[in-house]
Design goal:
By secondary structure, the chain is α+β, with helices and mostly antiparallel strands. It has 6 helices and 21 strands. The strands form 2 sheets. The chain has a 17-stranded mixed sheet that branches. The chain is globular, with a radius of gyration of 20 Å.
């Protein structure tokens, strides 16, 4: 039993990283915005805040513990926003911010029903569970194109309008606009999904892995108190503290927007650039308080606004912010 528990804790810890399993050409990474550019290495582990950039002939493949994979095309730059595993509820959050270029992803069958994989871009948000898809953004960030290989992808604009992209179709979106109606994808474009990294067999989790993770779920409270595993206090904190941080972050947004004559009509939920927060260090602190490292929705007609965001607690509690209040969203799901 002890060995299975130790194995479960070890496997949980791996959920907080993406491993480089393929590499070619010039590929560099930064630990964060202030760190130097270094060459990415095979088998290197990437974590929250890391930035990856491929050159004109560069490419890379990333693998996740549940069998999901990402393939990064040439001339691409993206940031890992959140790699998280919630021990008590057994869900995963994975989110990246694609600055420009193209990424392919396969979200595997072991990812989890309540888990979320989200690609944020300068123009839209693409969210999936079990599917193959790609997202491409030109260097100027003026649009984003999401292609579905199989399954379905929810594409949402920054003002809340959304559409579903189904197999062999694609939808484009511009900053602040609604996603266009999905259209068919040429067969030549679909051949990219035949890449071996996107078609590996993902086997079900072995029995001993499931038992080990069941042990850690059952013992979540004492493991948290003892600070054992990356799901414990030295990564996050107990649920009440996580909810409190989310509310404090929303309060900072509310204070920043006080006194504005007109509010922005749209806001990129992953960068908050349109809010023009003067302290640049405040933005990552705010976003780090939310599930996925981003707001969930933003709506405004210029005179009032409504923002929703989810805390990083077990239930991913959904909060609503307006000029008048911060509260648990009444349409909590």
């Amino acid at each position: 039993m002890l060995l299975l528990l130790i194995d479960g804790i070890w496997r949980e810890n791996q959920e907080f990283y993406a491993r480089v399993t393929g590499l070619g050409g010039q590929v560099q990474y930064q630990a964060d915005d202030r760190s130097p550019l270094l060459a990415l290495q095979l088998n290197q582990k990437l974590e929250d805040g890391n930035i990856v950039m491929t050159g004109p002939t560069g490419w890379a493949e990333l693998s996740f513990p549940d069998g999901s994979t990402m393939a990064i095309d040439f001339n691409t730059a993206f940031r890992i926003k959140r790699l998280e595993y919630n021990r008590a509820a057994a869900w995963r959050t994975r989110s990246i911010y694609l600055m420009f270029g193209r990424v392919f992803a396969r979200v595997g069958e072991n990812f989890g029903r309540d888990s979320k994989f989200t690609v944020y871009t300068p123009a839209c948000v693409a969210a999936v569970r079990g599917t193959r898809f790609s997202v491409v953004v030109p260097r100027d960030g003026t649009r984003a194109r999401t292609v579905c290989g199989d399954g379905a992808v929810a594409v949402q604009g920054f003002t809340g309008q959304s559409t579903f992209v189904t197999p062999a179709t694609a939808a484009e979106c511009q900053p602040g606009g609604a996603p266009q109606r999905p259209t068919g994808v040429p067969q030549a474009e679909m051949t990219a999904f035949a890449h071996p990294s996107l078609n590996q067999i993902i086997r079900p989790e072995p029995w001993y892995t499931l038992i080990g993770l069941t042990f850690t779920q059952t013992l979540d409270a004492p493991l948290n108190i003892l600070g054992i595993g990356k799901c414990s206090w030295f990564v996050g904190s107990i649920d009440t503290a996580r909810r409190s941080r989310a509310q404090s972050a929303l309060h900072l947004i509310q204070v920043n927007m006080e006194g504005e004559y007109r509010y922005p009509l749209w806001v990129n939920p992953a960068t908050l650039a349109e809010l023009k927060i003067e302290d640049p260090g405040a933005v990552p602190r705010i976003l780090n308080s939310f599930d996925g490292g981003a707001l969930e929705t933003y709506w405004s007609d210029g005179r009032v606004y409504r923002i929703t965001a989810r805390a990083r607690d077990r239930k991913r509690t959904r909060y609503e912010l307006t000029p008048s209040y911060i509260r648990v969203a009444p349409d909590q799901t």
